From TrEMBL:
This is Serine aminopeptidase S33 domain-containing protein. It comes from Parageobacillus toebii. Residues 36-144 form the Serine aminopeptidase S33 domain. It comes from the Bacteria. Pfam families: Hydrolase_4 (PF12146). InterPro entries: AB_hydrolase_fold, Hydrolase_4. The lineage of its organism: Bacteria, Bacillati, Bacillota, Bacilli, Bacillales.
Length: 201
């Protein structure tokens, strides 16, 4: 199993104000001609999905875990991104896999699961998807963005792992602008769910 990490995946290099946190780098594992794209969630990093990526790699698959733009650095960077940026980050990973693999599957956690559904809606050649706790409709989040006098940042969930010996890399603040972006992403994906025809696990 060969492991390599890299700063960005195809397309334009991410231009962010803050450096990437240690452990939040994108990753890939080179294996056979079956590829698996693994996407992390909202305000999170690749750290949360790396164990899953490693498990797939040990089974022999080629795995790509892109870092979503604005994630894994500082929440001020995230504030400057849009859901289209997050889509492009995942699509860059997909293009990387297409150059190496004949068959591709996609999985993701939370907003990563939402992006997984988006990929299935957009790329019917994908062979199967495994969305994990996909964010599709969160009414309280949508209604909160319509409130007046909201602060620029809200307290985030941060690390929510029960094991006290494990700390997840995640932002301690969530930009309100980014909440509006994920709400728009959920609306877009929800409206196109009927387009998904590939196997869902």
């Amino acid at each position: 199993m060969k492991w390599i990490h890299f700063a960005h995946l195809g397309g334009e290099e991410m231009k962010e104000k803050y450096p990437v946190l240690k452990g939040a780098e994108p990753f890939y594992f080179e294996g056979n001609n079956i590829g698996i794209l693994v996407s992390h969630g909202f305000t999170g990093t690749t750290q949360s999905m790396r164990p899953l990526g490693e498990a797939y790699a040990k089974a022999g698959y080629t795995v790509c875990g892109p870092r979503l733009k604005g994630h894994g650095t500082h929440y001020e960077d995230m504030e400057q991104t849009t859901y289209e940026d997050w889509i492009r980050s995942v699509e860059s990973g997909y293009e990387w896999l297409k150059e190496r693999c004949d068959t591709i599957f996609v999985t993701g956690l939370s907003m990563g699961g939402t992006l997984t559904l988006y990929m299935a809606e957009t790329y019917p050649e994908i062979k199967g998807i495994v969305p994990i706790n996909s964010a599709i409709d969160i009414p309280t989040m949508a209604s909160a963005t319509n409130l007046e006098d909201l602060p620029r940042y809200l307290d985030a969930i941060g690390s929510d792992i029960k094991n006290p010996d494990v700390k997840e890399l995640a932002y301690e603040k969530t930009p309100v602008a980014s909440i509006r972006q994920i709400v728009m992403l959920m609306e877009k994906v929800r409206d196109d769910l009927h387009k998904i025809t590939i196997p869902l696990r």
